[in-house]
Structure formats: C-alpha cells, structure tokens
Amino acid sequence: MRGAMSTVAILNMGGQEVLGIVPIHKAITMIHRGVARVHTPSGNGTFGPYLIPAAVELIKYIFAKWKYDPGNKRYSKKAVMERDFFLCGYCKGKATTVDHIIPKCDGGGSSWLNVVAACQRCNQKKGGRTPESAGMKLKVVPHKP
Fold first, then answer.
1. pLDDT tens-digit readout, 88-112
2. Which of 41, 67, 93 is the last residue of a domain?
C-alpha cells in the first residue's frame, strides 16, 4: 500500500456532502464494519478484499464522538494554551509556554490537571520546583476542558 493516498473523504449517505477526512486505515475499518462503502476508488489497487478508496459513502448512521464531543479534546501544549486563554497561570501575563505544576522530575506528568499556561519569566523562576517551594501562587485551577 506504499504510495497510496493517506487520507480518505467521508461522504454522507447519498454522497453529496463531505463530512470529514480520516486516515485510510480508519476508512478501511468502516468499510469492513459495514458502515461505509467505496464511493470513489483511488485507483491504487486493493487492500485485502477492498478497493483502496479516495472517498467512502456512509451506508449506516454513525456518531463520530471524536468529531462532535467537545469534552473529548486531546491534551496538547496548544490545547492547554487555548484552555488558559494564553494567560500565565501565575502572573496573568501573556503565556508563551506551559508549566508542569508538579515538575516532571518529581513524577508530575503531562496532563490537563498538572499543566498550566505560563509566561517565560514565571516558568524560569519556578524552575523544577512546585509553586509553593518557589514562593509562587497559582491563580488558576487547571481542569479538563
């Protein structure tokens, strides 16, 4: 399958509207599960018994939780910055980075509840310490959006 298209358009029932774009493996899984069929083949051969699709058409209703559920937002530095409105969790200045409340060196992980947006100055001042040991007060409560 090397050289084949890496993404596939998902069309509504009837094939008139593009609902989204998914990786090719997800499209093949949808075809195999019987919720979609090849609408437009890519012309790059087959994947097992299936034509490699450029677009698939839904033939059964599916709910794409990943697309419609805002509570299912994935953790990332960008997502943390957006959650915190690009404001530092310590001084409320313009944030340019993120800070681990419990430092990674102390076993704190990268998660919604342990990371806040931070400006460079506050992040450097805090360093590899907790806010309390650095003499800083966290002005926000981290949460999962």
1. 999 999 999 999 999 988 888 899 9
2. 67
